[in-house]
Amino acid sequence: MIDQKIPLPRHVGIIMDGNGRWATKRGLSRSMGHKAGAKALKKLCKHLLKLEIPYLSVFAFSTENFKRDKEEVDYLMNLFITMFQTEFSFLKDEQVRVVFSGRREPLPVDVLKTMDQITEETKDNERATLNVCLNYGGQSELVDATKKVVQLVQEGNLKIDELNENNFAQYLYQDLPPLDFVIRTSGEMRISNFMLWQASYAEFYFPDVLFPDFTPKEFDKAILEFQKRDRRFGGVKK
Ligand code: FPP
Fold this sequence. Notes:
Blueprint: E1 11-15, H1 19-25, H2 30-51, E2 55-62, H3 70-85, H4 90-93, E3 96-101, H5 109-122, E4 128-136, H6 138-154, E5 181-184, E6 203-205, H7 216-228
Helix pairs in contact: 1-2, 2-3, 3-5
The structure holds farnesyl diphosphate.
């Protein structure tokens, strides 16, 4: 059981890895693994709302994922559309704001349309925020933010000396609080270009569980581990 008296993370990031392996182990197509992953994500969203964790960022599709077979990419793109129109429409009723991080190019028009629709429909929701990293890369995010800053400086709308570590996040895809806790499922111990700026002081957790099997119970185990960590942010424990 989670002890609610010990602080919970305010912003959790999940690298949802292992869908393909989950499916292959069962003799299913990789796409079926992604479908099972989406179901697992839905359960986790509901669980985080219960725990009152206000920010969740998930890595749904990296820029590099476009290198996969067309069939798998097409399946994932369709999955995003159908999921946001059906299974994930509960987010609206639950007062969750949905935002996206990543480059729009070269996402298909119907995916962009669905993303814009759910963003618009949920923009005033204040209970929690779900940040979906889609066609996302952490280095691209920093490059794109730098370009925005340079443009503002060139236009005379920002002085270089005004830029600092506290206000830089407003030039990222989304201005969110720092990540407290990053979970990557499937036992792989890499960050793989996920939210590089936001993860600078995050605690990391690498459960040996494939994402479709990462249930709310597994999430609670992760939280118990988080609550044991001694976060010093570069300082010394008093
Ligand atoms: C990584 O596992 C997972 C992905 C590339 C896709 C993740 C997407 C979802 C879980 C669907 C989310 C749905 C919404 C609505 C946001 P992998 O394919 O790399 O697994 P493997 O390493 O075992 O091959």
